[in-house]
């Protein structure tokens, strides 16, 4: 593996990010514990992380993102969610590590090789709830819509999770995905991370090269922030800044702590670097065309 090109495929990013979950889990004051992250990351994940010093310095953002999504999942399940659909699930181990009801259905959607790898690593482990793995390329629109239609008829209240996914979409692709997710009436809420245009520009300079070389450049950072999704059937319920969350969790350096004291633009100011987690609510199927 060349240090100049540490990421060969988009799936490699899952190995890389698992390292940061492992590092957080190994802290005495960990805000979450993922006992599987180190195994899932493997040697290759460790090598990729070592070659990305900028990302390591900002590993607080991955800790904050994981913690926020955990909190939203716990809350939504307590409020009656009976199915979680994890889009581009990668090496997420939440159905193994979180306290979830046994009757909850957890559906993981990702590329076949990724799901096979995770199944192999976790073969001896037992999830706390029912897990279904669906091998699917989310760019296959017809297959995606068929899956959403099937799952929409099998649950009453569904939470969709897209963590580390949507930033790789073109704006038109993100719009189409949002519209497809709004179609089933049981798909009630959607949690996703989001990046502002100013932050995307910074990320392009810092880590964009390896991702571009792997054929998976960072793309999606809407000018209107979370309101981008409104026209596609989604109402913004909540936005949470990764920076301010990391400050709350005491994961920032002194300089970054000072930045966290500035007002939160909540993703609404395209010229301000901002990354966060958004919770959206289905307001009804969006018009097509």
Q: Can you walk me through this structure?
A:
The structure is a single chain. By secondary structure, the protein is of the alpha/beta class. The chain has a single domain (77-282), classed as Vaccinia Virus protein VP39 (Rossmann fold, 3-Layer(aba) Sandwich), CATH 3.40.50. The chain is built from eleven helices and seven strands. A seven-stranded mixed beta sheet has the order 3-2-1-4-5-7-6. Strand 1, helix 5 (94-97) and strand 2 form a beta-alpha-beta unit.
Throw out a few tags for this protein:
single chain, alpha/beta, globular, 16% strand, Rossmann fold, 289 residues, 7 strands
Note the topology.
Layout: H1 12-25, H2 37-50, H3 53-57, H4 60-78, E1 83-87, H5 94-97, E2 105-110, H6 112-121, E3 130-135, H7 141-152, E4 158-162, H8 171-182, E5 187-195, H9 197-213, E6 234-241, H10 242-248, H11 254-260, E7 275-282
Parallel strand pairs: 1-2, 1-4, 2-3, 4-5
Antiparallel strand pairs: 5-7, 6-7
- The tally of helices reads 11
CATH topology term: Rossmann fold
Helix/strand order, N-terminal first: HHHHEHEHEHEHEHEHHE
From the alpha carbons, calculate the radius of gyration and give it in angstroms. Answer: 18 Å
N- to C-terminal distance? 45 Å
Give the biggest sheet: 7 strands, mixed
CATH architecture descriptor name: 3-Layer(aba) Sandwich
> What's the arrangement of strands in the largest beta sheet?
3-2-1-4-5-7-6
Q: Given this structure, which CATH class is correct?
A: Alpha Beta
The poorly predicted ranges are none
| Structural domain count | 1
Q: Mean of the pLDDT scores?
A: 94
Instruction: Look at the helices and sheets and give the structural class.
Output: alpha/beta
Q: Tell the overall outline.
A: globular
How many DSSP E strands? 7
What is the helical fraction, as a range of percent? 40-55%
Within CATH, the superfamily carries the name Vaccinia Virus protein VP39
Q: Kindly estimate the percentage of residues that lie in beta strands according to DSSP.
A: 15-25%
């Amino acid at each position: 593996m060349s240090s100049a090109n540490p990421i060969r495929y988009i799936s490699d990013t899952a190995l890389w990010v698992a390292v940061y979950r492992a590092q957080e889990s190994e802290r005495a004051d960990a805000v979450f514990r993922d006992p599987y992250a180190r195994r899932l990351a493997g040697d290759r994940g460790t090598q990729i992380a070592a070659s990305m010093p900028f990302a390591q310095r900002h590993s607080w953002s991955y800790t904050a993102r994981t913690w926020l999504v955990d909190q939203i999942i716990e809350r939504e399940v307590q409020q009656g969610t009976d199915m979680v659909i994890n889009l581009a699930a990668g090496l997420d181990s939440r159905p193994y590590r979180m306290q979830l009801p046994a009757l909850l259905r957890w559906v993981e959607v990702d590329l076949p090789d990724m799901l096979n790898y995770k199944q192999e690593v976790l073969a001896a482990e037992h999830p706390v709830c029912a897990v279904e793995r669906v091998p699917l390329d989310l760019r296959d629109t017809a297959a995606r819509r068929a899956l959403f239609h099937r799952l929409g008829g099998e649950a009453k209240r569904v939470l969709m999770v897209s963590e580390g996914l949507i930033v790789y979409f073109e704006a038109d692709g993100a719009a189409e995905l949002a519209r497809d997710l709004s179609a089933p009436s049981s798909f009630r809420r959607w949690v996703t991370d989001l990046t502002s245009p100013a932050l995307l520009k910074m990320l392009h300079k810092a880590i964009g090269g390896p991702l571009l070389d792997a054929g998976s450049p960072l793309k999606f950072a809407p000018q209107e922030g979370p309101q981008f999704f409104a026209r596609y059937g989604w109402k913004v319920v909540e936005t949470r800044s990764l920076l301010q969350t990391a400050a709350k969790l005491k994961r920032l350096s002194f300089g970054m702590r000072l930045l966290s004291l500035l007002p939160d633009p909540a993703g609404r100011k395209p010229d301000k670097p901002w990354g966060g987690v958004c919770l959206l609510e289905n307001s009804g199927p969006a018009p097509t065309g």
